[in-house]
Amino acid sequence: MAKRVRAYVKLQIPAGKATPAPPIGPALGQHGVAIMNFCKEYNERTSAMAGQIVPVVITVYEDRSFTFVTKTPPAADLLRRAAGIDKGSANPRTTKVAQVSGDQIREIAELKLKDLNAVDLAGAIKQVEGTARSMGIEVAG
Amino acid sequence: MTAPDAEDAPASSGEGWLELAVEVDAEAVEPVTELFARHGYNEGVVIEEPFTQDGDGDNLAVDSSRPVAVRTFVAAADVGDETLEAIRSALWHLGRLRRVGELTVTPRREEDWANAWKAHYRPVRVGRRVVVRPPWQVYEPGAGEVVVELDPGMAFGTGTHPSTRLGMSGMEDELATRPGATVFDVGTGSGVLAIAALLLGAGRVDAVDIEPVAVRSTRENAARNGVADRLRVEVGSAGSDGPFPSAYDVVVANIIARVLVDLAPGVAAAVAPGGSLVLSGIIESREPAVRRAYEAEGLGFVRRDQIDDWVGLVYRRAAG
């Protein structure tokens, strides 16, 4: 029998820099997780990835024990890097701030495939394109 | 050891936080997360997906038919109305492409979360004889048991982590044959090992941590256990330029592998001839690097212990 899950929380935080401050403190404290135990584990496991955003999915069980897995950097982060911009458009429908190539989208989709809920690469590409549009990034071609 | 930058958190100076939250459909999670990361403290964003599961916890699955909650936190003092307006405006524009709910802004205080998890924290046996008890719980010790009363606050070391348990049992074994020993605790965190050492019969303990919050926490916990007069704790590290450049009968360091490797010369130098070194906080894949570093310092390997994928190591320096 599997343990009952109390919460399923994804945190997007910089690698190696977990602290008991927000967002981790409130996000995990409300579910009864010993906050510093999570911080220590996360920092240990991501210390080699400093400078990147490393999302982590935490499963909190009814007994307040927890497990977590780290994920690939977010598509928005990868798109920003690919497009060479600091941030997405404030008004993505009318104001386009950058352009990326179909090949760049494909590369990101390949990297992200295992973390996206897409059935295949074509589905992953569509999702990454959708994220790009929401950020005011045009896809060439 | 405590986490980096914990002291920079505005909450520690008594100021409040704002929680910004919005419910969106799955397609809008990435852009909203990107927006929140730009404004949130430590670039942090929390995403809670609704899920379904069977009564026995089996078949956990994300429920994509319901909206996803995306949240971030900002220091109230740092964020003006114009920032909130900019976020609302960006969400409104996004709402024309995807389903995006209303932004909610809720004041939050550190106490809201700093204490919430404590309700689930029970007395726990950490080593062979040592039981750690939170101040808000009662525990009747059995024969031979030593009880450490510990309020971990925001410093590491509540006794439930495998690395604390490995450090504790390693230290208990080394102290068993050395009544009145001098002990040095590097990266003391909540002070759990330092205080336990004194309750287990050590004569005197010196402890260091690079985080002021840990030093404060250790002092409070030492006073709570009536051992403050035999425990010195200062901000700093091991080595000749640290606050305690002496040699000890037993040295304990429960940190993480990378730091243990960096500190190897200073930590090893603190081990007196005939003394022991207990290392913990080592994830299994990094054990070889730690062993190389300490064997290079002329210490003799005594034993290793493992809980899950965490490893504890014990070394000894040959008697002079």
TrEMBL record, chain A:
Domain Large ribosomal subunit protein uL11 N-terminal: 9-66
Record-linked Gene3D superfamilies: Ribosomal protein L11, C-terminal domain (1.10.10.250), Ribosomal protein L11/L12, N-terminal domain (3.30.1550.10)
UniProt-listed InterPro entries: Ribosomal_uL11, Ribosomal_uL11_bac-typ, Ribosomal_uL11_C, Ribosomal_uL11_C_sf, Ribosomal_uL11_CS, Ribosomal_uL11_N, Ribosomal_uL11_N_sf
GO cellular component, one term: cytosolic large ribosomal subunit
Annotated function: Forms part of the ribosomal stalk which helps the ribosome interact with GTP-bound translation factors.
PANTHER family, per the entry: 60S RIBOSOMAL PROTEIN L12, LARGE RIBOSOMAL SUBUNIT PROTEIN UL11M
Entry-linked NCBIfam families: L11_bact
Protein name: Large ribosomal subunit protein uL11
Source taxonomy: Bacteria, Pseudomonadati, Thermomicrobiota, Thermomicrobia, Thermomicrobiales
